[in-house]
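Design a sequence for this backbone.
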C-alpha cells in the first residue's frame, strides 16, 4: 500500500551570509562559485580562484555532477595573436606591447600562461565541491559539452590552427577518451541530437577532394556517431553540400569555426555557418520524396543566406561588402517549444583590434583616418542584436521586434546563448562595453572616475611603457608615442594630486563634439536663411576652430582667415556661399568629421550604457521579454553568458570573464524553494494540488515516487 511520508527537506545548503543573492520575488539568482567574491575579485570556479579559467563555455550534467567546459585566459590569447601581428609590422617588442595593454586596461587582462590548456571542471550539486577532472594541452580549450546516453561529449577549440581538434568522451566512471580528431579546423562545437543519434559538425580531414574541384579552405563535414561504436563517425554531408562557404575567408581566422550551432527542428537538422556575406543557415535530412541526395543519401539546402533569395538576416542595411558592414558574421539556432529561433553574433574583438591598431598608428604619426579604423566597431554597434523566429508555413525568419527594442543603443555585440527552464526561454548576451571603454576612457568619464588605487596603478603602467619606449633609441615613432604618454602621465599625476585638471591640460581632452556639430549646424542654417546672426556666430566659431584645431597647415589657416575677413566685410553673397560650402567640406574632411562622428557614437554608447551581459527571458515565445540583469549581476567584467543547464533545483548558467575568471550561478524558483516546516498533516490541505519540481502541476495524487511541492512544502512520496 502506498504510504506518504511528509518530511522537512532543506534547500541547497545555505552558504555564508556574504553569499551573493539577487531576489526577484518569485525567483532568485545565487552565485555558486567563490560565492563571497564580487567585481574585480578572482573567481575562475575553483576554490580560491584562478583568473586563467576565464570562460564557462558549456555545462552538461551526469548524475550529481555538472561538468563545465572552459577556456583558459582567452582574452590574453587573442591579445597575443593581434600583438604578434602588430609587433612584426612595427618592430615593437611583445614586452612593450603588453606594457601598453596594461596601461590601457589597467592590468585587467592577465598575460597568459601557455604551459597548459583549459580545464574541464566538475561541480557536485549535493556537496558543492568543484574539482578539475581534465586538463588539455597548451592552446587547447573545451568549447562544447553535451550529455548523450551515459556519457558526456566535449568538443575542443583552439586559436592555433596547427592544433588538431577533437571530440572527447567521458564515461560514467569518469574516464576520458578521444573518439574523433581532425586537422584543418579551429573548433568542434556544433552538435545536436537527431533521430536518436549524436551529430557534430566541423571538419573531417579524411574527406577527399573530388576530381576537378579546387582545394577548399575547409573540408566541411556533418558527422553522425554510431550508437554501437563511439569512435565511428560517419559523414552525412561534406564540403560539396554547402556552396561557396568552404572557400569563405572567415574560415581561415581564429573565429571561423566551420559550423557554429546545430538544432533539430521539424524533421530536419539546422546548421549555421559563418560568412563574410552574413551568416548562413542550412537544413538537412535523409532524402525523401524525390529530393536530390548527396553521396550519403542526405538532402541539404540553404534556408538563410546570400543565395537562397528568401532570408538573409546577417546583412545590415549599411551598404558595402566589408565585414564591418554586416549585422552579423555568425548566427546560431535554437529550438524552444517546437519553434526554431535564430540569433546573431558579431565579431566584436575584430572591431576592437582594428580600432586599437589604428589609434596606435595615428599616435605614432602614420597617416590613417579614424573613419577607417573605427568603421568596423561603429557599424557593428549601429546595428542592434536581433532574434528571429522561423515561420514554418512561409519559410521566412521573422524578427522579434520586442527583443530588438531592448538592444537598441546598447553595447551588446552578440547574443551568446539561449536556454530553457520551466517553460521559459532565456537569452543571454555579450556586452562589449568593458572592452570598448579602453578605447574611449579619456572621453567617456571612466578615466576620471577611477578609485585612488586604480589611479596609482594606471600611473605605474604608463611609467612602465615610457621606460620601455625610451629603450628604443633612434625610433622616431617610439619617441613620438613616448612624448604623448608623458603628457598623459603629467595629466594623471596632476589629477591624482589635486583631483582636478587645469585649463591648459584640459585641452589634451578636447570636446570636439560640440565644436564640429555646431559648425555643421550653423553652416546649414546660414546657407538656408542667410541670416546675419548666423553669420556673426559662424565667424566666432571659425575663429575658435582656427585656434584649436592644430592640424591645419599654414596655407589652410590663411584660407580660413581670409574667409573670416570676407564674412566680416560682407562681400558678394555668391562668392561667400561658394567659399563657405568649400570650407564646410574642407573642415569636415580635414578633421575627419566622419571619424569624429563615429568616435562620438561609440563614446556615447559606452558612456550611456551599463556594462556586463544582459539576461532576459520570455514565456510567450518572444512577444515580450523580462529583463533579469543588464550588468552581469553587478560585475561589469562578466561580459558574457554562454552556457545554460536546466536541473531540478533550477537553471545553472556560467559566465565569461576573461579578466578575473568565469563564474557559476543558479536561478531558482522561490515558490519551490521557500519551504516551510511541516509540523503535522493538518498543515497540508487535502484538496490542494501537487507540483513537480519544475513547476508542472500533477493531476490528482502522484503515482510515481519522488519529491513534490504541496502547499509550498516539499513532500517525499515513497511506495
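Sequence:
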Amino acid at each position: 500500500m502506498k504510504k506518504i511520508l511528509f518530511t522537512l527537506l532543506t534547500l541547497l545548503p545555505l552558504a555564508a551570509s556574504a553569499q551573493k543573492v539577487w531576489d526577484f520575488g518569485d525567483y532568485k539568482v545565487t552565485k555558486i562559485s567563490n560565492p563571497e567574491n564580487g567585481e574585480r575579485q578572482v573567481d575562475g570556479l575553483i576554490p580560491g580562484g584562478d583568473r586563467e579559467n576565464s570562460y564557462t563555455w558549456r555545462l552538461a550534467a551526469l548524475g550529481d555532477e555538472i561538468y563545465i567546459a572552459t577556456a583558459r585566459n582567452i582574452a590574453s590569447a587573442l591579445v597575443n595573436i593581434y600583438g604578434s601581428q602588430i609587433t612584426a609590422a612595427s618592430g615593437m617588442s611583445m614586452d612593450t606591447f603588453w606594457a601598453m595593454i596594461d596601461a590601457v586596461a589597467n592590468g585587467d587582462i592577465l598575460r597568459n600562461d601557455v604551459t597548459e590548456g583549459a580545464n574541464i571542471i566538475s561541480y557536485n550539486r549535493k556537496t558543492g565541491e568543484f574539482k578539475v577532472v581534465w586538463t588539455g594541452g597548451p592552446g587547447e580549450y573545451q568549447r562544447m559539452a553535451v550529455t548523450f546516453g551515459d556519457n558526456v561529449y566535449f568538443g575542443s577549440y583552439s586559436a592555433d590552427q596547427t592544433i588538431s581538434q577533437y571530440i572527447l568522451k567521458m564515461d560514467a566512471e569518469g574516464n576520458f577518451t578521444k573518439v574523433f580528431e581532425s586537422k584543418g579546423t579551429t573548433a568542434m562545437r556544433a552538435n545536436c541530437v537527431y533521430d536518436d543519434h549524436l551529430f557534430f559538425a566541423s571538419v573531417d580531414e579524411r574527406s577527399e577532394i573530388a576530381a576537378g574541384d579546387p582545394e577548399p579552405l575547409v573540408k566541411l563535414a556533418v558527422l553522425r556517431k554510431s550508437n554501437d561504436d563511439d569512435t565511428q563517425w560517419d559523414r552525412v554531408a561534406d564540403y560539396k553540400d554547402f556552396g561557396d562557404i568552404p572557400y569563405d575567408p572567415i574560415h581561415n581566422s581564429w573565429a571561423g569555426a566551420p559550423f557554429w550551432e546545430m538544432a533539430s527542428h521539424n524533421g530536419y537538422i539546422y546548421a549555421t555557418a559563418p560568412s563574410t556575406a552574413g551568416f548562413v543557415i542550412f537544413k538537412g535530412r535523409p532524402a525523401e520524396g524525390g529530393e536530390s541526395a548527396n553521396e550519403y543519401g542526405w538532402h541539404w539546402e540553404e534556408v538563410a543566406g546570400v543565395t537562397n533569395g528568401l532570408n538573409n538576416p546577417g546583412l545590415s542595411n549599411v551598404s558595402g561588402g566589408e565585414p564591418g558592414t554586416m549585422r552579423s558574421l555568425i548566427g546560431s539556432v535554437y529550438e524552444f517549444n517546437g519553434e526554431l529561433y535564430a540569433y546573431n553574433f558579431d565579431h566584436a574583438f575584430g572591431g576592437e583590434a582594428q580600432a586599437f591598431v589604428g589609434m596606435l598608428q595615428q599616435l605614432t604619426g602614420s597617416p590613417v583616418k579614424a573613419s577607417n579604423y573605427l568603421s568596423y566597431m561603429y557599424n557593428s554597434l549601429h546595428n542592434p542584436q536581433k532574434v528571429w523566429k522561423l515561420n514554418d508555413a512561409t519559410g521566412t525568419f521573422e524578427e522579434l521586434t520586442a527583443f530588438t527594442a531592448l538592444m537598441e543603443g546598447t553595447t551588446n555585440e552578440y547574443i551568446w546563448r539561449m536556454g530553457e527552464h520551466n517553460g521559459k526561454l532565456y537569452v543571454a548576451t555579450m556586452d562589449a562595453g568593458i572592452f570598448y571603454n579602453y578605447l574611449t576612457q579619456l572621453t567617456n568619464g571612466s578615466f576620471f572616475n577611477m578609485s585612488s588605487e586604480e589611479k596609482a596603478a594606471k600611473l605605474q603602467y604608463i611609467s612602465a611603457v615610457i621606460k620601455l619606449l625610451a629603450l628604443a633609441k633612434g625610433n622616431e615613432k617610439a619617441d613620438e608615442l613616448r612624448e604623448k604618454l608623458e603628457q598623459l602621465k603629467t595629466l594623471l599625476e596632476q589629477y591624482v594630486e589635486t583631483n582636478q585638471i587645469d585649463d591648459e591640460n584640459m585641452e589634451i581632452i578636447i570636446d570636439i563634439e560640440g565644436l564640429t556639430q555646431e559648425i555643421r549646424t550653423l553652416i546649414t542654417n546660414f546657407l538656408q536663411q542667410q541670416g546675419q546672426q548666423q553669420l556673426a556666430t559662424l565667424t566666432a566659431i571659425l575663429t575658435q576652430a582656427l585656434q584649436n584645431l592644430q592640424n591645419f597647415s599654414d596655407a589652410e589657416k590663411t584660407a580660413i582667415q581670409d574667409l573670416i575677413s570676407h564674412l566680416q566685410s560682407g562681400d558678394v553673397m555668391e562668392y561667400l556661399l561658394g567659399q563657405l560650402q568649400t570650407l564646410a567640406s574642407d573642415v569636415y574632411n580635414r578633421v575627419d568629421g566622419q571619424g569624429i562622428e563615429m568616435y562620438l557614437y561609440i563614446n556615447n554608447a559606452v558612456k550611456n550604457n551599463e556594462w556586463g551581459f544582459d539576461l532576459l527571458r520570455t514565456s510567450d515565445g518572444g512577444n515580450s521579454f523580462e529583463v533579469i540583469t543588464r550588468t552581469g549581476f553587478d560585475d561589469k567584467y562578466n561580459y558574457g553568458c554562454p552556457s545554460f543547464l536546466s536541473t531540478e533545483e533550477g537553471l545553472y548558467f556560467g559566465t565569461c570573464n576573461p579578466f578575473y575568471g568565469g563564474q557559476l550561478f543558479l536561478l531558482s524558483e522561490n515558490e519551490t524553494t521557500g519551504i516551510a516546516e511541516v509540523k503535522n498533516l493538518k498543515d497540508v490541505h487535502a484538496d490542494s494540488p501537487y507540483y513537480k519540481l519544475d513547476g508542472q502541476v500533477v493531476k490528482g495524487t502522484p503515482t510515481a515516487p519522488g519529491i513534490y511541492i504541496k502547499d509550498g512544502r516539499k513532500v517525499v512520496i515513497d511506495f
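The first helix runs from residue 74 to 90.
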